[in-house]
Amino acid sequence: MSNDRLAALSAAGVSIWLDDLSRERLTSGNLVELIDEKHVVGVTTNPTIFAGALSDGAAYDEQVRELAARDADVDSAIREITVADVQQACDVFAGVWERTNGVDGRVSLEVDPRLAHDTEKTVAQALDLWKAVDRPNLLVKIPATEAGLPAITRVTAEGISVNVTLIFSVERYKAVMDAYLTGLEQAVENGQDLAAIHSVGSFFVSRVDSEIDSRLAATGGDEALALRGKAAVANSRLAYAAYRDAFSGARWDALKSKGAHAQRPLWASTGVKNPDYPDTLYVSELVVDNTVNTMPEKTLEAFADHGEVTGDQVTDTAGAAQQVFTDLEGVGIDLDDVYLALENEGVQKFEKSWTELQETVRSQLDAAK
Hints:
By secondary structure, the chain is an alpha/beta fold. The chain has helices at about 5-10, 25, 30-40, 45-55, 60-70, 75-90, 95-100, 120-135, 150-155, 170-190, 205-220, 220-225, 230-245, 250-255, 280-285, 295-305, 320-330, 335-369, and strands spanning about 15-20, 40-45, 105-110, 140-145, 160-165, 200-205, 265-270, 290-295.
């Protein structure tokens, strides 16, 4: 039976994606169940998710044995395992993809996080992943690092749909949208069908509160402490205002007339990390049409149980959101340093997960020989 709270969220224009994927979720029919009952219309993955999936249970044993039998190396084994999961998930979502004309039914697969600061290798692997998965509803994830920005342009110009990940600041988000628009312009020159290209910009939410809240606690004082829990939502609301600006005006109109799709904002990292905050905070406070919210299962279940949709929470909130950042700077928070720290930490976390993934697969291959 369909969940009413999630139905209301979907009706408000929020595409509900699941921030998780595993072989077990695919083979058990759980993913189909989430589509049918929880309004899930897409999936995001990352190295941390795959590291967890591979270390849990026996769902991958048969494929690992087959890989070990032909003496596959660790990185190629990881590629084959993750591509197989993503292909199957793409097939599960094919009906959603068709029903929404390619807007949803999307499955994201990330380039190797060790390439985050190497434009050329990121582009090469994005092209390889697109060919390997060979599904029109794939999104290739590219990080919004300085090196990632030109990669976004070049990959988009090749007609590939991209999920830009690890966006923390509005300024970097503006650069991401510009990179996408430039990619679309180059795609026109390359003779690509713009209508076939989709993109999302994954703007990270909860990590912003975690970082800024810890700095506010260290600063101390009533004025600073009163600002805890406000930065992440305000940051996201300013990002939405930037999105509205980027996808309006003459430049966008020219691309739209050729069939281009705007790069939708995707709220990522929406699991609440501070137990003092409502566990649906980063869903209910960011309801606005034509956005995506990718949720860990715990957050999805929490919203299904007690989440509230009370209309658009984002449009025309930029003034109040900007005041939050004026106040943060007023108590001494160095926002540029916050965003730099978050980006570095984000890349390092995924690199660490990739190392864990390698170690897990290596030990499984060795055990299967």
